[in-house]
Amino acid sequence: MSDTSDRAAPEIFTPSGLNRLVRDLLEDALPVGVWIEGELSNVARPTSGHIYFTLKDANAQVRCAMFRMAASRLRFRPTDGMHVLMRAKVGLYEARGEFQLVADHMEPAGEGALQREFEQLKARLGAEGLFDAERKRPLPAFPRRIGVITSPSGAAIRDVLSVLGRRLGLAEVEVLPVPVQGREAPPAIAAMVRRAAASGRYDVLLVTRGGGSLEDLWAFNDEQVARAIHASAVPVVSAVGHEVDFTIADFVADLRAATPSAAAELLVPDGADLARNLDRLRQRMATLVTRRIQAAAQRTDHLHARLNSQRPQARLARDAQRLEAVHRRLRTAINQSNALRRARLDRLQARLAAQHPRLRLTPVEQRIAALRQRLVNSMARRLERDQLRVHQQGRTLHAVSPLATLERGYAIVFDQRDAVVRRANDIRVGERVRVMLAEGEMRLLRED
C-alpha cells in the first residue's frame, strides 16, 4: 500500500495533447527548413491551390504539403515519378497524428544541381574579373562582316538572318556551324570562337541559340567557352535562349541580347532609320548652304549701299527722305489731335444723351404700369377670396335653414295668424291651417 501511494501519478495525455507535444518537439528540434531529395507520388492539386504529395525513396516515404502561396512560385508542374529537391519544415499534422513536411521551395533535382554548379562557376569567373564592365568593348556602328556561331539548322539562325536582311542588307553574314547542345558542344563552340577571332575576317561575333531548359543551354555555361569569349580580340555578342534565360556566356560577352532577333537588331542599324537620317542631313546641308548664300548676298547689298551713300545725289535723296518723314509725322500728329478731339466730343454727346429727361421718364412709366398691374391683380385676388367666402357662408346658412329640413320630407304648419304650430292642441276644430312643403303649400281644415 505504501509503495503505491508514494509513487507520483503519471501524466495522462489526450490524443490531441500528445500530438501537439510531438509537433512542438519536432519544430523545436528542426526549427528551420531542411533540404530533402526524392521521388514524387500521389500528387494532388485540389481547387484550393495547395499541393499534397508523397516524397519517397527505395526504403521510406513521407507525406508532404505545399500551400498555395509557395505553389504559385513553382516554375514547373509537379507530377508523379518526378525526382525533385525541396526545402521543407518538419512538422506533425495534429488532426490525424501524421508526420509531414511542409515545403516552401521545390525544383527538379537535376536542375538544382546544375543551378548550383552555375552559381559556383559564375562566382569564380566573376572574382577573376571576366565580367567586369570596364573590359567590355563597344560594337562597331557599321559592321561589314558578322560571324554567327550557332547551329546551321536551328530557329535562331533563321531569326538572325531574317532580321539582318530586313534592317541592313549591306552587312555580310557568315554562319560558323557548331553543335549547341550535348557533350561535344562546349569544345566546339570554344574552338570556333578562338578560330574566328584569330582569322581577322569579322568585325563582330554573335554566339547564339534558341530557348530550352537549363540542360539544353548548358553548353554556354562551360568554362572553356567563357574563357574563349573573354580572350577574343573581336567584340562578342551573346544571345542564348529567351529573355529570362541567363548563361555564363551572357555575362562574359561584350553585350548580352535577350533573344537572337534582339541581337540582330543590336548588331546593325535600321536601313530605314539611316535613310531618314541621311535625308535630314541632306536637308540641313541644303539649309546651311542657302543661309550662307543669303548672308553673302546681304553683305554684298550692304557694301553696295554704303558705296552709294557716299555720292552727293544720295545725300540729297536722304535729306528729301528726312523732310518727307517730318511732313508725315506732322500730318500724323494733326490727324491724331483731331481724332482725340472728335473722340472727346463723341463722349460728351453720349453723356448728354444719357441725361435726357425722356430716358428718366421711361423707368418711371414702367414702374407705374407695374404698380397698376399689381393693384389690378391684388383687387382680383381680393374679389375672388370674398366671393369664395360668401359662397361658403351661403352653404353654411343653407345647411341650417328650415328649407333644407323641408327637402328631407318635413313640413311646417302655420295657423291663421301665421304662427308656427308646434302642438296639435294649438289648433281648434274647424280652424284652417297652412302647410309649407319643400315645393308648394297646402291649406287644410282640422276636423275632430
Explain the overall architecture.
The chain is α/β, with parallel strands linked by helices and 448 residues long. The protein has five domains: 15-110, OB fold (Dihydrolipoamide Acetyltransferase, E2P); 129-269, Rossmann fold (3-Layer(aba) Sandwich); 275-304; 342-399; 406-445, no CATH class. It contains 13 helices and 13 strands. The strands form three sheets. It has a five-stranded mixed barrel with strand order 1-2-3-5-4. The radius of gyration is 58 Å and the shape is flat. The model has no long low-confidence stretch (mean pLDDT 83).
Give the number of DSSP strands. 13
**SSE string, helix = H, strand = E?**
HHEEEHEEHEHEHEHEHEHHHHHEEE
Strand order of the largest sheet: 1-2-3-5-4
Using only C-alpha atoms, the radius of gyration works out to 58 Å
Question: Biggest sheet, open or closed, and with what strands and sense?
Answer: 5 strands, mixed, barrel
Determine the CATH topology of the largest domain.
Answer: Rossmann fold
- Distance from first to last alpha carbon: 135 Å
What's the overall geometry?
A: flat
Low-confidence stretches: none
How much helical structure, as a percent, in the residues? 40-55%
Proper CATH architecture of the largest domain: 3-Layer(aba) Sandwich
Count of domain modules:
5
Average predicted local confidence, pLDDT: 83
Determine the structural class based on helices, strands and strand pairing.
Answer: alpha/beta
CATH C-level label of the largest domain? Alpha Beta
Tally of alpha and pi helices? 13
Output the CATH homologous superfamily of the largest domain: Succinyl-CoA synthetase domains
User: In percent, how much strand structure appears in the residues?
Assistant: 15-25%
